[in-house]
Amino acid sequence: MKHKAEDNAHFDKEAELTEKVEKLLGPTPEKAPAKSIAINHITDGDSAPGAPAVGTDSPEPAPAAQPVEVPPKDQTKTDEDQAIDDIAAKDADELLEAEDKEKQEVEKAFDGKKKDFKTKLKDFFSNWWNNPKYRWATIAALALLIITVLGLPWSRYFVLNTAGVRSSASIIILDDSTKLPLKNVSVTFGKQSALTDSDGKATLTHLRLGSQQGTIQKRAFAPISKKVIVGWGSNPLGNLSLTPVGAQYAFLVTDWLSGKPIEGAEASANEANALSDKNGKILLTLDKNDASDATVNIKADTYRDEQAHISASTTGQQAVKMVSGHKHAFVSKRSGKYDVYKIDADGQHEEVALAGTGLERNDITLIANPNANVAALVSTRDNVRNKDGYLLSTLTMINLDDNQTTRVVQSERIQLVNWVGDKLVYAQIAASASAANPHRYRLVAYDYKKPEAKELAASNYFNDVMVLGGNVYYAPSSSYGNMPHENFYKINTDGTGKQTILDQEVWNIFRADYDKLVLSMDNAWYEYKLNGKPTKLAGEPASTQNRVYVDSPDGKYSVWIDTRDGKGVLILYDTKSKTEKVIRSQSGLRNPIHWLSNNTLVYRINTDQETADYVLNIDGGEPHKIKDVTNTTGIDQWYYY
What we know:
The chain is of the alpha+beta class. It is built from six helices and 41 strands.
């Protein structure tokens, strides 16, 4: 049956092709009747060779079959056959194309099912966006929803907290009895806690937004429970006062030299603490269980720590006089050697910081840093000589807190110029350098904290060097006739910012005023104001006195010494108002000057009766003698080698 169906399909296809050919070429002519061709059948033994063919009318044997020569295919095809082949090929191509198209449509149908959701979503948004009515209605609805959510505090905070948004808050806690800040008060909002600092301020972070229950408490004070609303941002909650419920003790804190009150001094005992007001008064509140016997520590910036004792029977106000916490360094030969001592300004806690070796010459220089307990010493204490037998000087840095020392450099000569912050500026002779060597002298800034030395300049000789306004001014020499032309320069202590102030060699630098220099050179004089330009003078000025200014640590004041009517006069210069006033006049008053704090300084008296260091407060009061000392140099004029 299968073969029969296939044959029927074949005949149908052939009929269809014939019809197409006839339409193309016209009706086909009648075919000639087929000639009978005798075929000799050779079977397996049925007929002998030469037997007559079966089914023939003549008994005579058929003539032998002649070989037929078949021409090449392309030569034997008729036009009809060729048309049939072309139509068959075309139909095959159309069939394949139809199958491919059907396959693509099936794939597209399945792919459409996969992308159906995305397509629908895209079409939805496209239709929504292209419809202004729907678009603006949706936007308005969303805006209304957002406004509603953000407009209601509970919903706003709920949304923000859910999104993980956190905020911060700060509060300042005061003592209700003094209206001053309270330190170490415990402040808790929700699950976050913090302690107040010395300004009474507590800052809490990572707070949930909305209503928070707050608790503020400190021993000897009534606790406070307070509900606060934490919003977006920093949330400064202002000031809150705690009421003292413990025992209170009063102290009056003043400067021991001037008698002036000290504001901001802190008294502490156990967990209790309090600050002094502008009148120097402290009201310390203790838990009643701690008041039976307690030691109160009192501290103030730049002052030495002091102590006071209280008990349950203590009444009234205790006076506390505070002394500068900066150590004063000096040299004394009371032991027969040049020892370096450190001492407090009131003469207490004297101690040898660096013992002498007995090998020091008397040309000793000692300069203390006004900002730290560090002093620089130049002496021959190490007894080291160069190859020519010349005794070398040693620059030694002394830590006055722990008496540790650092040997910085050794040289034939070392001259200290001044401190600039943590850096000491000095000049030294390079080892084994001849007088004509252009790098014989080195100008150096040494940072004692790092420690590190930075060369600022080099010359065979420096005519003058000075520190002014935190910068180093220097005048190299062109001596010996083989040196290049030198100028007058300014440079920072880190070696940067080098500037030429005057393109001529300067012989001497005179500080005529706090911010004015007078420069001398060959047959000419110039005046230079700080950060300005030099101007030539008509001739030599009436006075060539060189003022040695020494600045206070905060830079608000500077002092210098003049000689008037046979006495040394200590003059205070206000750098802001640019005014001067005499704060001390005394026989034998001279350099060196050294600041212990922003309002306390040390000066030297050198007479036939004594050589001693005195301490003075610029706010008032009488000077106080610290100790007899050996006369040494400090910050002074540049001297010539």
